[in-house]
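Please study the protein below:
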Amino acid sequence: MCLRATKIFGLITTVVAFFSTSLVSQEVSILEEVRAVMEDSRVQAAFEYIDSHDDETLETLIALTEIPAPPFAETERARIFLELLNSIGIDNSYIDEVGNVIALRKGAAPNPETLVISGHLDTVFPEGTNVQVQQMGDTLKAPGIGDDTRGLATLLAILRSLNANNIETENNILFVGTVGEEGLGDLRGVKHLFTNSEFVISSFISIDGTGDTRVTHQGLGSHRYSVTFKGPGGHSWGAFGLVNPAHILSRAVHYFEIAADAYTRNGPKTSYNVGMVQGGTSINSIPAEVSMQVDMRSESQDRLIEIDSIFQRSIHKAVREGNVNRRTGPALNVDIELIGDRPSGEISSDEILIQRAIASTELLNLTPVLGRSSTDSNIPISLGIPAITIGGGGIGVASHSPDEYYINENGPRGIQRALLILLSRAGMVPLS
């Protein structure tokens, strides 16, 4: 028995060693593959072009930032972004049914794959926000300048560098400006891209925000609801005994908080938040209507579904009890509207696209930081399509704040990293 166990243990050790060696070999080969791309004379020329044309990139960044693009109102920025792509040179371009900017740079292969590189057109800021850029040395201050106008400027800089240096790729590159990435936009642009597009997309790179080390390959999922409780309403004294929507909302939140708190204390991180409560007409009126908006997030799609179920059960329990306990008048009803649905998921860090992103970062003498976030990449990740979100270089501060600003420290390096990842995936046509 001991001899047999020893043989089995030895076999297991050999198998583990084999796979460990294979994984290391793969990482080394990818590193060398990306190094060869970076050392190609055309890529070196493109890197130099990005450096020498950084002033043009900053001018583009300022011009696009000063075009307001609040949620559900990205039309003008989309139009200008499309014009800029066309002025640089692209094979085919248009604005699709939901407002995404689509621009195809064709690959030379007989049956090319299609790789997307994208940035989002919208910002979180409402209509009327002052988006004029204040410039102080290398610091540019304006709402939305980093998130995600920097991404759009990066896409344009990449296209300029490709065209200026006659870099032809094997596979198609689809430059995309998406709508609806932020807030209640609910990723509507990228959802449309993957469900109604003419293209079969094999890989997806999102340029979102600033920095040059981040590699997001995990999607943080979320469900968001607007819940409205409706009753007859009436005078607080004269109509006392009617079912009170505010009381039922409070009861629902109470039940939800107790159950959700217990559920989220263990397992993959899951969060919940009642972020807005509205309704009522006066202190001495039973409200006819009150509403709340609720946000739930999780690293795990299964746990996101379960906390959603806890939420739903809490609401229906509160409504049922409120209607049973009312002393007079008609029953209360509730409308539960899903206003946000972002799937969770992740792509293994061993996937070739992620390994190329890691190698590209390391070859620029940077340390890659892998992680999870809620971005346009959530959608392809949830579909099992290799996808990453990276920054467009420089330093961004106070994102989603009216005081947001951008510092152009090593700004070109982030663009160069994005270009290197892109070319290592798209493949370059060899020099003849």
Notes: The chain has a mean pLDDT of 95. The chain has two domains: 25-220+344-426, 222-342. The two ends are 64 Å apart (CA to CA). The first strand starts at residue 92 and ends at 95.
